[in-house]
Amino acid sequence: MVAIPDAVTGEENIPIPTPNIRKEIKSDALSNSNAKPTAEQRVYQSACPAVLSKMIIAEIVPEISDNQCGERSPLKVKSIAGISFTSEAILNCRMATSLAGWIEETKKSAKTILKDELVSINNSTSYDCRKRRGAGQSKISEHAFANALDIIGFEFKETEPVSVLNHWVSEKEENSDEVSDEKELFLTAARNSACSHFTTVLSPDTNAAHKDHFHFDLGCHGKNCTYKICE
Predict the structure, then answer these.
(1) CA–CA separation, 193 vs 101, rounded Å?
(2) Band of residue 32 on the pLDDT scale cut at 50, 70, 90
(3) Furthest-apart CA pair in the chain: how many Å?
(4) How far is 205 from 192, CA to CA, in rounded Å?
(5) Residues 6+ apart with CB under 8 A from 13
(6) Where are the domains of the chain?
(7) How far is CA 72 from CA 22, 23, 115, 128, in A?
């Protein structure tokens, strides 16, 4: 695990909304997910600047309110920075905007390392009202706030698809005397780049629960939310 101070490293000019710092949630946070509001309330949703600028192709969908889980202005994202997702992702604006910066860098890595054009990202879990895996009984996942996305692979114009499961080589097993495969180098570049755009970046090096995907989120680490986890 690497804990590093937050820094402004991206080149994007798209404003990223200020994060909401949440308090720790009790272990019974998911125990009453079917509860209904006692009275109808008007919900005020916020427009996402990156959607307005067309950097993100998405539609705002109704508020998600599932007990302790949810997001007031969720986006159903179809593509970011010209790169499509294999399945629509439910994300908040800040997370989607951070993905835009990472995708721009990943497109450059595809051209530099694979000499090819990134076409789509094979994504899996986005919004999901659940607890963190392997984090005890008191932690709720950032997925529960539409503040996280899991990536399982990448597709290109000519190169065969690259998947985290099949092409990631653990840093613990890597032999420095051998030349890394281009697909391995691409995945490493994608993971390393993500550490500049998200507060949490988990890979197969983290644990067995992440053997087949990258996990990115914008959760708070440290008292002032100024630290990042990059594994």
Answers:
(1) 9
(2) very low
(3) 66
(4) 13
(5) none
(6) 44-174+182-230
(7) 14, 17, 41, 15
